[in-house]
Amino acid sequence: MDQLQQLSGPIVVTLMLLFFGGSLYMSIRISRKRENADGYMTGGGKIGFGISAASMTATWIWASSMYASATSGFTYGISGPIHYGLWGALMILLIYPFGRRIRQVAPRAHTIAEVMFARHGRSSQLMLAGSNVLGSVISLTSNLIAGGALIDMLSPFTFTQGIIAIAAGVLLYTLWSGFRASVLTDFAQVVAMLGAVVIIIPVVFFAAGGPSLFETGAHNLTPQQQDFFSSDAFFNQGAPYIAAVLAYAIGNQTIAQRLFAVREDLIKKTFVTATVGYGATIIGVGMLGVLALYAGIQPLNDDVNNLIPQLAANYLPPVLLCVFFVMIIGSLSSTADADLTALASIMMADIYGQNIAGKKRANPQTMIWVGRITMIIATAAGLFFASSQFNILDLLVFVGALWGALVFPVISSFYWNRVTNLAFTAAVIAGLACFLPVRFEWIDLSGGLGIASDVLATIGIGVVLGLMAFGFFGRPVALVIGTVSTLAAAPFAIGFLHTYPVLSGSLVAYAASTIVCVALTIMNTTRRFDFALIKERTGDFDTRDGGPDASADAGVAGSSGPAELDDRLELANDGKDRA
């Protein structure tokens, strides 16, 4: 640790004050004397292309994603970052075909769980809301871990001091304006992050040895790590992540929140742009892990979370080390504030708005305070769990696999009018019941149980590929691809897949939930759901002064004060989009 370059205490404090102070200033500028509850959750559903694309990109170029991509490169070699970044980008791309359908049936919703309440009822809603609470707390925790590792290594401050400072900074600027503060600060953060990445990666590459490193350091890699088509990388990183991308795209509230916030006609444009930005950046950052592998660098204290800060401390000059510090703080803040606003919207809309007060009796001002209190409690929980310093990559794969049990029931609920609440609930429970013992190896999968697990996992392959095809090409193509891929994989997968519990756990969750959902839905021969009811059952909670649209129009027309900045940004975005 003493041999690594560090920033002095005053410089770190100054950088933190400038970054979080600037974010707080932006948040104060858009704050309103009477905040609108719907604006606090989704910005009124009329955010333009520039802000939305930047927010989606910044939210998913997070510190944990950077660290995990570098870990994948260090662990699996050349193909590791490709598997991480490419499939993560595919996750963002998969949002828009399903997202357009979701917005079509629920144009003014705030959470996917809220839509499930309108579609099925309370049990389906709480399952989705509960999984998102768990997922967002884990995501917040992993970002705090990334920030704590950064501060512990690059400054005289400790890991604990680092996570407290970052948590306080993010909470401070997000607390009062909620989602609106998150998306507007994301725009500045993504510009800073992308600019830093373009500078820092080439500098580290040439400082570590440049092109010659691939010759002098080749002996540090195993044959699998040198292989661009490494089976080790595919089965341990690529395949589980392919299985997880659908789950993140469909089940994650931070994505759903941006889906409900962007103007409906800009969904495709927004998410395609974010796909390209995320993929290029994360693959590039992941190559830092490959450089460390070639250079023979061992993570400090054998903790792979230290890998990226360690490279920066070894190879960057002081000025660029400051730029790197801001890049990581910005990347983790952009996702941490998204996690806070996601948790707030779930507690506001799903818990208080529909299950405690009821939609018609919900008090908008109370809702806002529920959101703010949720952020404070979530920050405290994140700090508590961050002290355990879990492996970030393991956390991300676990959450994605856990959401796999929800994917087919959620998607089918937006297209198939025969899916019932019983089918949804039983399918999710069945998926989780199969996922947990396989993923954590609670049972011996040798012999017959292993074959049964492999059969389910093979069906899961067809489900994953079929659902992806369904989003872009429709049901006939999806059925063909799903069936063919299952039959083609069977001779190779059965008797083999159970040796990879991370991958098998994800796939059996998909398969079990799909089989149960389809079976129970086919048994329903009488009940048909009218999707028009979802639009009637979801919508604005806060209708004071005509709701968020009227409030925004009034602000543009003649209001003065902090709200004017937010309204003008929305108006400017609309003008650019029309042009």
From TrEMBL:
<dbReference type="GO" id="GO:0005886">
    <property type="term" value="C:plasma membrane"/>
</dbReference>
<keyword id="KW-0915">Sodium</keyword>
<feature type="transmembrane region" description="Helical">
    <location>
        <begin position="422"/>
        <end position="440"/>
    </location>
</feature>
<feature type="region of interest" description="Disordered">
    <location>
        <begin position="540"/>
        <end position="579"/>
    </location>
</feature>
<feature type="transmembrane region" description="Helical">
    <location>
        <begin position="315"/>
        <end position="338"/>
    </location>
</feature>
<dbReference type="InterPro" id="IPR050277">
    <property type="entry name" value="Sodium:Solute_Symporter"/>
</dbReference>
<keyword id="KW-0813">Transport</keyword>
<protein>
    <submittedName>
        <fullName>Sodium:proline symporter</fullName>
    </submittedName>
</protein>
<feature type="transmembrane region" description="Helical">
    <location>
        <begin position="271"/>
        <end position="295"/>
    </location>
</feature>
<feature type="transmembrane region" description="Helical">
    <location>
        <begin position="126"/>
        <end position="151"/>
    </location>
</feature>
<keyword id="KW-0472">Membrane</keyword>
<keyword id="KW-0406">Ion transport</keyword>
<feature type="transmembrane region" description="Helical">
    <location>
        <begin position="228"/>
        <end position="250"/>
    </location>
</feature>
<feature type="transmembrane region" description="Helical">
    <location>
        <begin position="187"/>
        <end position="208"/>
    </location>
</feature>
<feature type="transmembrane region" description="Helical">
    <location>
        <begin position="503"/>
        <end position="523"/>
    </location>
</feature>
<feature type="transmembrane region" description="Helical">
    <location>
        <begin position="446"/>
        <end position="470"/>
    </location>
</feature>
<dbReference type="GO" id="GO:0006814">
    <property type="term" value="P:sodium ion transport"/>
</dbReference>
<feature type="transmembrane region" description="Helical">
    <location>
        <begin position="47"/>
        <end position="70"/>
    </location>
</feature>
<dbReference type="InterPro" id="IPR001734">
    <property type="entry name" value="Na/solute_symporter"/>
</dbReference>
<feature type="transmembrane region" description="Helical">
    <location>
        <begin position="82"/>
        <end position="99"/>
    </location>
</feature>
<feature type="transmembrane region" description="Helical">
    <location>
        <begin position="477"/>
        <end position="497"/>
    </location>
</feature>
<dbReference type="InterPro" id="IPR038377">
    <property type="entry name" value="Na/Glc_symporter_sf"/>
</dbReference>
<dbReference type="Pfam" id="PF00474">
    <property type="entry name" value="SSF"/>
</dbReference>
<dbReference type="GO" id="GO:0015293">
    <property type="term" value="F:symporter activity"/>
</dbReference>
<keyword id="KW-0812">Transmembrane</keyword>
<keyword id="KW-1133">Transmembrane helix</keyword>
<feature type="transmembrane region" description="Helical">
    <location>
        <begin position="369"/>
        <end position="386"/>
    </location>
</feature>
<feature type="transmembrane region" description="Helical">
    <location>
        <begin position="6"/>
        <end position="26"/>
    </location>
</feature>
<comment type="similarity">
    <text>Belongs to the sodium:solute symporter (SSF) (TC 2.A.21) family.</text>
</comment>
<keyword id="KW-1003">Cell membrane</keyword>
<keyword id="KW-0769">Symport</keyword>
<feature type="compositionally biased region" description="Basic and acidic residues">
    <location>
        <begin position="565"/>
        <end position="579"/>
    </location>
</feature>
<feature type="transmembrane region" description="Helical">
    <location>
        <begin position="392"/>
        <end position="415"/>
    </location>
</feature>
<feature type="compositionally biased region" description="Low complexity">
    <location>
        <begin position="548"/>
        <end position="563"/>
    </location>
</feature>
<keyword id="KW-0739">Sodium transport</keyword>
<feature type="transmembrane region" description="Helical">
    <location>
        <begin position="157"/>
        <end position="175"/>
    </location>
</feature>
